[in-house]
């Protein structure tokens, strides 16, 4: 059985599960339970209707310029294209770890797309504004236009990006990217001290836009680490409501959950500033600049892990946050475990999505790795099935077979 207690931070209630020892045998997966919650929420909150109303205008066009078979090959593409001054490049912050041979390495993620958004951006903004009931020419509509750009800018598959690593003379080649314009490469790095932050820059032509600078934090194999959900755990997103997601993403000022910045500052003081933080969200990579700025303003620095699907589609944003979140999060946390299997992990999430089920799966797969699980019991947003999602039976089922 799970020993569950509660505490209050900023008037928000949490379930706390302190875990130790070995897991019981024969625990079954709770995927069906989280899928049922997803289906109920999507049906009763009108997600399909909202997605259908946006589908006609938000059709991904990035593949039109790269319809050739080579764009399917990703890093195996024999004829990658270089970056031009008309492109935009994003370099994502990451965590460096020691591989099995003791060498430093890190996963480098980059994205490449055209430097200017689609000429139809006015139509796209109008569709979102109409769905949210915004009047034309308002300040809110202008905010929508600025934030919607990453969703209406054509992706550029098959591009390779060169990166200069810190003050060293090492130069890495990232990519080429696949059909979604994103590349993911494990690269060996020069030596650095535990907790060191190395700033690297994209080696691109003058005039290239985007996020051309990234931070790599070096962490040794042992110590503490934190994996935190983002939406409705540390940031108000209203993931149980389609218009709520669109409003908090494209209109409202990004708002932290009350008490969470203070809690995370306290946790950082306990696990030491050198402990790595991972922010795991089911949002697509389109939101990386938005979420990076938000976490930098309110929370300890860490690596953002986002979905690489549904690039250039707002309906995809809605489906990403409400479909298959358990499987996605389990897969990404397994990757973190492969990097840092000896770290003592703290897992933090909320009850609106499938965080309890995902974290329960991880606790069963890797006994003893997670030392503490915190689940925010969400009661302050309009959500279908909120009471059922917060029932003790749900948490008991999600963590079935996990020892105290």
UniProtKB/TrEMBL annotation:
Residues 224-377 form the Phosphatidate phosphatase APP1 catalytic domain. InterPro entries: APP1_cat, Mg2+_PAP. GO terms for molecular function: phosphatidate phosphatase activity. Signal peptide: none annotated. It holds the Pfam family APP1_cat. GO terms for cellular component: actin cortical patch. PANTHER family: FILAMENT ORGANIZATION PROTEIN APP1-LIKE, PUTATIVE (AFU_ORTHOLOGUE AFUA_1G06650)-RELATED, PHOSPHATIDATE PHOSPHATASE APP1. This is Phosphatidate phosphatase APP1 catalytic domain-containing protein.
